Amino acid sequence: MNKRSMKNAFAFIAKAGICALLAATVVSCNNQGTKPSTAAPGGDSLQANNAEKIVYVNIDTLLEKFEYFKDVRTKLEDKAKKAQADLQSRSNAFQREVADYQQKAATMSAADRQSTEERLARKQDELARHNQNASASFAQEEAAENEKLYSRITDYLKKHAKENGYKLVLTYSAANPGVLYADESLEITNEVLSALNADYAKEKK
Length: 205
Fold this sequence. Notes:
The chain is mainly alpha-helical. Helices cover 75% and strands 6% of the residues.
């Protein structure tokens, strides 16, 4: 279990998952029940397209300032630190046993050496399994928290988009710049962030 990757993985996965799925979810929501356009090609069609609202959210800013995300990230980082400390303690204890055996091996009988080596081999396997299980458990919790985060944001955006007539909500991230340029007048990050934090503050009371 890598300490650095455990601490940073949640933020990375959250950004990647939201950036990849957010726009599609909002578009799907707004397209439900929408009838195909029967407008003739030309000016009327172009005017209708221009009237549709497209906005974007800066996901870097959103996650940096979203209190729910910060609380979950802190919880996961604390769990990662405890898991790392536990693993380090177990590893140190095992290394001490190995060192003790190496010091005494010359004076031990062949049967005792074989017995001790078999016991140490079993402990080494147990340590490896513990590490794998801890990593798997952390990954599962991380994925579950990421799903909750994604649902929390998209559920609000579906409602917000419908109330404001947004047909498409894009995301921008410096780490994943799918949008190369967007006029700042199209950004709704702050209004989304304010609403999400307000809702979360009510939950915590």
